[in-house]
Specification:
alpha/beta; 3-stranded antiparallel β-sheet; 17 strands; globular
Length: 625
């Protein structure tokens, strides 16, 4: 052992302080450029953006410099500090790249806690790619160890090092507050593409700066005036209704990936083709149906946030300003599946994707789902279409599991399914792209490919919903079918289509146009047996939807319960039923009233109720056990 120590000592290189400073400065810039290069966006475009706004380069480089300096002062080793910092930032950049490619979501601070999800992503890489990343990580680890062993900087007095560490730490806090937590500054920088798509924010402003900004903006704070005693008393004094099995219909709820009615545009002509919304329109016209739109939390991504809103009744936008609501669920949570289970339902979640996406494998049981069917149950290359499991097989699973349930149980059944086929990106999504429409506005071949690919997915999803409804129409069991979209598609050309085709959508337009960025269709349909059991038409009148049937996504679940004849199972849901009638849409500081007037300030008549929604949601997610 002594020989090893003597060998290391004889080979150790001592670097002067000026040389160490030069090494750290060079490494800092190199790491910053390497992180930018790894980004899935254009490296050249990123450099142009930073050239036009030099502060962006500083904001992306400064955190790297701070970490290098701190490690240098702690270990008195410039080369080691550069190797360790480089490994950390480059691995994070690779994680960001892979997550954007796989899910069209950037790597955010909340993802760090989702180890199983990260492991699942890596585990499912192609063998060659997996081996490449294993070798890269092994190289970084080896480099860190070797630089720690064989390099050192000329000794600096401990008092100087401690003083410098204290100075760096103390300066970091005000700099973080003034720069990285500054929302106005973050929004001041231009974005290449749709500003509401987080991927565009990250690729335009830099991964390091955006990641640290998210770290600040994702902090959860108690709502103003919060007092948990009111909610504890409301829960403890509540007596839910009791139901007999024969009073309860089965419920099938489906969230369609990127499902929208963008095909409803005056410039499109589907007369020579299949209308992508043929079945949705047919079912919407049924006397046992209601359709409209929901205001969802996100644009172009954040699928699980819409899930969260609909399945819980809590608003992501009033709980988590940035990020994914599922990241904050670490134990049992009061949600619609759990409430339904309490009154006799069996519950099942289906998603033909990886179980670890958005931490669903943990979150679903917390929400009250007794079982979760995921990608491992959808084996076979023939099941893939456009890179994901085709909607046909998702609907097959719904029907098969419904049939199994009928044979094995007399309980009512709640099935929730998230489809995945129409997940982006849409550039060359399918091997053979069908022509789906004619258009009276000239489109490039790239634009046509994007829209044709997208509408192919909508058509397939719509066809399967029609097939499911036809099946449900032929059975005697009462079933309520709920279908809705999670978000509008995040096209690679940003807002280009919305402007080109004159959609009533604009990030800089009226409040209605801004809300339309987050608008997706919904449908609640009941077969004849369910409509008779629930007295659907009378319940629809009592629901008192606004004139355009447009509501916030977090109201959809409670509206479903009302139409299904399920009342008084939660004091929070009772409260939310009343709020929906007074304030149909509440999203950040954008609101719609029952008469379809829009406002960017909450009316005085419902301000207390909106505050109560925020506080009660906070209690249910973060404090209620």
């Amino acid at each position: 052992m002594q020989k090893i120590f003597d060998f290391i000592k004889s080979k150790r290189i001592t670097i002067s302080i000026p040389a160490s400073v030069a090494i750290m400065a060079f490494a800092c810039i190199t790491i910053s450029l390497a992180v930018t290069y790894i980004d899935p966006g254009s490296f050249k475009r990123s450099l142009v953006l930073m050239k036009d706004a030099p502060l962006l380069f500083i904001l992306n480089t400064a955190p790297i410099a701070v970490l290098i300096i701190l490690l240098f002062l702690l270990f008195n080793n410039a080369v080691f500090s550069c190797a360790f910092s480089g490994a950390l930032f480059l691995i994070a950049a690779v994680a960001n790249r892979e997550k954007i490619i796989l899910r069209q979501d950037p790597f955010i601070p909340g993802d760090i806690s989702l180890f199983n999800e990260a492991f699942g992503i890596v585990k499912n890489f192609p063998a060659k790619q997996f081996l490449t990343y294993v070798l890269i990580i092994a190289f970084f680890i080896l480099a860190i160890v070797l630089t720690f062993i064989f390099f050192e900087t000329k000794k600096i007095k401990p008092v100087i090092r401690v003083s410098c560490i204290a100075a760096v730490v103390l300066l970091s806090f005000p700099l973080n507050t003034c720069l990285y937590a500054n929302e106005a500054l973050y929004n001041r920088f231009s974005v290449d593409g749709n500003i509401y798509f987080d991927v565009n924010q990250f690729t335009s402003k830099g991964f390091v700066y955006s990641f640290i900004y998210k770290f600040n903006s994702m902090k959860i704070e108690k709502p103003e005036g919060y007092n948990s005693h009111y909610f504890i008393e409301a829960e403890n004094s509540f007596s839910p209704n009791e139901y007999k099995k024969e009073q309860l219909p089965h419920i099938i709820m489906i969230m369609g990936e990127a499902f929208s009615d963008l095909s409803e545009n005056e410039h499109f002509d589907f007369s020579a083709y299949t209308d992508p919304l043929e079945n949705f329109k047919r079912l919407s016209k049924s006397e046992n149906a209601v359709s409209g739109h929901i205001a969802v939390p996100n644009f172009g991504g954040g699928t699980s946030n819409t899930e969260f809103d609909v399945l819980t009744g809590y608003s992501t936008r009033y709980l988590v300003k940035d990020g994914i609501a599922y990241s904050y669920i670490r134990g049992p949570i009061d949600a619609i599946p759990q409430r339904l289970k309490n009154i006799g339902y069996n519950t099942l979640a289906i998603h033909p994707g990886f179980s670890w996406f958005y931490n669903r494998s943990n979150v679903y049981p917390y929400m009250g789902f007794e079982d979760f069917i995921h990608l491992s149950s959808f084996q076979g290359e023939e099941k893939y279409h456009g890179g994901y499991i085709a909607d046909k097989y998702a609907i097959d699973s719904i029907i098969d599991n419904f049939e199994k349930h009928k044979k094995n149980s007399e309980n009512p059944f709640f099935e929730f399914c998230v489809t995945i086929q129409n997940h982006g990106p849409y550039d060359d999504k399918y091997n053979e792209v069908e022509k789906m429409f004619d258009c009276d506005i000239p489109l490039t071949s790239t634009q046509e490919n994007l829209l044709n690919s997208y509408f192919m997915g909508i058509r397939d999803n719509d066809y399967e919903i029609g097939r499911l409804a036809d099946y449900l129409s032929e059975i005697d069991e009462p079933v309520v079918l709920v279908f809705f979209g999670d978000h509008l598609p995040g096209f690679s050309n940003g807002m280009e289509f919305f402007d080109l085709l004159n959609y009533n959508i604009s990030p800089n337009g009226t409040i209605e146009q801004q809300l339309n960025i987050y608008s997706t269709p919904f449908l609640i349909w009941e077969n004849d047996a369910a409509a008779s059991l629930t007295n659907f038409n009378n319940r629809l009148k009592n629901l008192a939807l606004p004139k355009n049937n447009h509501i916030s996504a977090f109201y959809l679940g409670t509206a479903l319960l009302d139409l299904a004849g399920i009342e008084n199972i939660s004091p929070f849901y009772n409260f939310e039923d009343g709020l929906r009638k007074e304030l149909p849409i509440a999203r950040d500081d954008s609101f719609m009233l029952p008469d379809r007037t829009y406002s960017n300030s909450v009316p005085d008549t419902v301000s207390d109720e909106l505050n109560l929604l925020k506080q009660w949601s906070y209690y249910k997610v973060f404090e209620s056990k």
